[in-house]
What does this fold into?
Amino acid sequence: VQLQASGGGLVQAGGSLRLSCAGTGVTYSLNAMGWFRQAPGKEREFVAGIRRSSGATFYTDSVKGRFTISRDSAKTTVYLQMDSLKPEDTALYYCAAGSVSILTREYEYGYWGQGTLVTVSS
It folds into this structure.
């Protein structure tokens, strides 16, 4: 399984970015994909997750109403539409896939992409 994240960049506060995570070798046993982020000096945290089959989603509170996670029809690529970005959203964003029971559980994701940097200026 390989995950390739892209779409990061520099944006002003209030702006938008769309991250993509293209998966190859993603089998049906991997039931979820998600986005995590790590800000400088902080631990990596859950951002959003999606069930590959049902499309059910879950978000951390700080991004609800601003970020939207979605998947393509093949269910191997996930997107993170980020609107109304804030400086505190600045982080390295990682996509992940796994056989997951609880979407927020980082340790349940067995496969990780390389990360894409999002910088939000004030």
Notes: The radius of gyration is 13 Å.
